[in-house]
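A student in our group prepared the protein record below, which I am reviewing. I have pasted the whole thing underneath without changing anything:
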Amino acid sequence: MAGTISVTDDQGQTITLERPAGRVIALYGAFNEILHGLGRAEVLVARTSADKTPASITRLPVIGTHMRPNIEAVLAHRPDLVLQMTGRKEAALPVEALRKHGVRVAVFHAATFAELFSVIRRVGVLTGAEAQAEGMVRGMEARLAALEAKVEARVAQTTERPRVFFEVRSPNMLAAGRSGMVAEIIRKAGGLNCVEDRAKFARLSEEEIVRLNPDAYLIQRGPMNPAPLPLTKRPRLRTLAATVAGRAWFVDEHKYSRPGPQSIDAAEELAGLLHPGISLTTDKSTAAKHGATRKKDRK
């Protein structure tokens, strides 16, 4: 049909709209940030309970959680587009329920920067911000290319690619495996994921972590890991090389584990932590605030 907008999502579904979406609900928080970056945050009509960024969305009504949105509440806001990211099987259930009610739902997958850039471009098409999406992607690509050049130059000088462990959850330990955005961020930042499991997540014992003995240890803080202890307060992990060297840091779960515009910030931040000699244009004060082995913790 002439004048319609159409994209294919990452489930192979063709999403066709008669005009750019004007009433959007994002069931995954990074889409709110993407739309804000595209200058299209005004199309958002509701949010999930966990989503509070950008700040402008906090005034929006809540329609439940990312995994279990209230279908009736979603329908009450009459969205012409709902956005979701692939993930656990439970997230697929509300997607199917909404589709049965005739709601157009686009489901995307972003485990690499290339996939993230594709998502941003398609969201731009669906919301009438194609040019803005292209500009956002080109800016992110330029930052990533600059970061990779600086990391490679630094590694060539030092021959160091620190072995990194990323803690997703504790004390029932869950680590980042070698697929997913966290693994991509570690690679782009000039590190090596010491966890060999090729899945997105790996369940490990503390004994296995001791065997791995990473050079750097990242502890995410957020909904999945709300109150993690510093390594200095974990008897079995106090002697890790990362702990002894003061290279264990708390990091923001939303920045590292949620594919979106902040993923570039995470890669730049981590590169600065792993390779202190790298000069980055971004403000590293945020990274400093997350130090898990600050002096007061090492006493």
Confidence is low (pLDDT under 50) at residues 282-299. The two ends are 69 Å apart (CA to CA). The chain has twelve helices and twelve strands.
